[in-house]
Amino acid sequence: MKDTRKIIYRIVTVTMAVAIILLAGFIMIKQWGLVEGYDFGGGAYYYIDIPGFEKHLPPDNVFTAKTPVWVHVVLFFAWGWLMWRLWLWLDRRSEGEENEK
Amino acid sequence: MKQSKISNLLRTEDWLSVWIGVIVIALGAVAVLTGWFDFSTLKFSQWTVGETLSAKDAAKVVPLAEQLTDWLFWKKFLTTFLTLAVLFGAGVKLQGEKLRKFIPAFIMLFVIAFVVRMVSAEFTLKRYLEWAFWALLIGLLIANTVGVPKWLKPAIRTEFYIKTGLVIFGFSILFSNIAKFGLYGLGIAWGVTPIVILFMWWFGNRILKIKNKPLLITVASATSVCGTSAAIATGAASGAKKEDLSVAISISIIFTIIMMVFEPMIIKWTGMGHIMGGALIGGTVDSTGAVVLAGNALGPEAEQVASLVKMIQNLLIGFIAFFVAIFFARKVDKTGKSEVGASEIWTRFPKFILGFMGASIVASVIFVPAFGAEATGAINKVLGQYKDWAFVLAFTSIGLDTNFKEIAKSMQGGKVLWLYIVGQTFNIILTFAVVWLLLSGVLFPVPDIKTFADKEARINAKKEAAAPVEQPEEAMDLEAAEEAAAKPAETTVEQPVETVR
Fold first, then answer.
1. Are A40 and B288 in contact (CB under 8 A)?
2. CB atoms within 10 A of CB B408
3. Nearest one of B500, B451, B436, B447 to B301, comparing CA atoms
4. What distance in Å separates the CA atoms of residue B282 and residue B148, rounded to the nearest whole number?
5. Backbone angles phi, psi at A71, to 5 degrees
6. CB contact under 8 A, B458 and A55
7. What's B428-484 look like in SS3?
8. Percentage of chain B with pLDDT > 90?
9. What would you measure as the largest C-alpha separation in chain B, in angstroms?
């Protein structure tokens, strides 16, 4: 039974991987998703990789935040600290369970 | 003791990558701000293998033969090579290695990197895959066919190039973008991202039983933050193996192609509003370029919102890499079960991360306020070229130093693929939930987004936002005059129909 599940898993995984690669290749051949006049695509990993990024990215006044910047900064660090504590807790818990085994 | 500390500052790879990065940033800043010299690197223009292009796109193509027969091109080739050779050569020498072995090896590595950049400048390949994919592939093909000669190995220094590239990269992470989309953007970008990372950490550990934790965190970071850039930073911070980084980046790049096309289609089919749709795209599609294009497919408003959310996510790279470095420095080894004290954490902590964060802080807190966002952007345009060359050298080195078996082993029997699929699905669901809560108008007012359809209007809007508001000379009605001065200029432009292929 376990071997059957392993075989099914392998077949599904390989099929999925091949399908994804073929689909990506098909999209590239058809040049889907591109915008005429935009000199970039998904290959521009980061904003400075976009040629002439200052022309494509929103200017500062596209949205005016009503909350002061310091509130954003405080919330940013507060949430980050919470998530950091959660990560440590998750990691210690999984280590504890592994040690028990 | 003191001498060994100073010696570490000048002889260890981590610190040398910081100093080289600082030198490049300083030279780039001086070059752009003063205009005394041109610090830009060799860059290929787009070329094609004969695809059918629109007139607009065809106008930007320069035939490869024309580029390769231009003497200015080769002049740039030489200056780029010399700059990189001097910087990395000095670094290698200070680490106690022999320059006479490094230089010929570096010449060959640079030539291969040159071929990588040439291939990735092809019109279609550039738009979908770019240099990371081709650097890995070309390196792998060489390593697994003709093989890598021994004399080339002194230049194969993946981590050195990556660390240097990351320090330079840090300058482009501007913390000043944190409030660009107010609490909406912060909630969508920062609220969701760490939860997705922790979910994938839990799922990879408990369900898929992936023991390789650096690989786990690298894939989680690539999925939840911004793809390749985040993977490079997190992979380096966690000490991920080169083949793990290759697998994480390859999966991210391939899925980005698919999501860039299908996510806007699905959003349109659901009838979701443009602001919500744009925010969903910004929070889930991996690369910034793909986010802009996918947002554009929904309209100018969606494109703006998608870009805003992605810009906030981009600034998370530094913080996530920093805390990942601390997390892994705590462990005795990468799958270690016990933790170490603070001084040991400092010893183990990858110092280049300090350079990475330091560059970001200097850019955000000193350069943007002192010289403005436009000047900092111009500096980053130049520094981005050095970042790319450093990463191309790194990824080419990875390819040259890896065989297909090692890559296949990193796939962990397909578990990494399922980790990405499940993680990205969770990312999309959670992002949608947060987007709905914040932007649907049910709980909070729908944000007012100004759309700037064409490039000129966008550039003018940027200039107006940066320029001081003029006071009217005669203020007969003082109140009206104060209101006029306080109001930002509105230049909303009707969107002409964009041709989407």
1. no
2. 12
3. B451
4. 41
5. -65, -40
6. yes
7. HHHHHHHHHHHHCCCCCCCCCCCCCCCHHHHHHHHHHHHCCCCCCCCCCCHHHHHHH
8. 70
9. 82
Structure tokens at B6: 């100073």
Quote the pLDDT of residue B419: 97
Q: Which residues of B touch A52 (CB under 8 A)?
A: 455
The encoded tokens of residue B229 equal 């850039």
- Residues in contact with B216: Cβ distance below 8 Å, sequence separation at least 6, in sequence order: B200, B201, B204, B205, B210, B419
Q: Report how far residue B388's alpha carbon sits from residue B168's, in angstroms, rounded to the nearest whole number.
A: 10
Cβ of B465 under 8 Å from any chain A Cβ?
yes
pLDDT given for residue B484 in this prediction: 47
What's the CA gap between B10 and B17, in Å, rounded?
A: 10
Distance CA B388, CA A66 (A): 37
Give the contacts of B316 (CB within 8 A, at least 6 positions apart). B189, B190, B193, B225, B226, B230
- pLDDT for position A101: 66
What's the token pair of residue B406? 């090692």
| Residue B122 bridge partners (DSSP) | B47
Q: Which tokens hold the place of B18?
A: 């910081």
Q: Quick one: pLDDT at residue B393?
A: 97
- How far apart CA B191 and CA B180 sit, in angstroms, is 15
Nearest to B181 by CA among B316, B369, B315, B309: B309
> pLDDT of A6-54, one tens digit each?
999 999 999 999 999 999 999 999 989 998 888 888 888 888 888 888 7
Alpha helices in chain A (DSSP H): 2-30, 53-56, 69-100
Distance CA B324, CA B193 (A): 14
φ/ψ (deg, to 5) at B411:
-70, -10
Residues 26-85 of A with CB under 8 A from B: 27-28, 31-50, 52-67, 69, 71-73, 75-76, 79-80, 83-84
Is A32 in a helix, a strand, or coil?
coil
Query: CA-to-CA distance for A61 and A83, rounded, in angstroms?
Result: 31
How close, in Å, is residue A8 to chain B by CA atoms?
13
Please, are residues B328 and B289 in contact by the beta-carbon 8 Å criterion? no
Q: Which residues lie closer than 8 Å to B35 by C-beta, 6 or more apart?
A: none
Q: Determine the 3-state secondary structure of B422 from DSSP.
A: helix
Which residue is closest to B459 within chain A, CA to CA?
A55
Say what percent of chain B tops pLDDT 70.
87
- Is B198's CB within 8 Å of A87's CB? yes
Q: Which residue of chain B has the CA closest to A96?
A: B337
Q: Which residue reads 């490049």 in tokens?
A: B24
CA distance A11 to B93: 51
Task: Find tokens 């039983």 and name the residue.
Answer: B209
pTM strictly above 0.90 = no
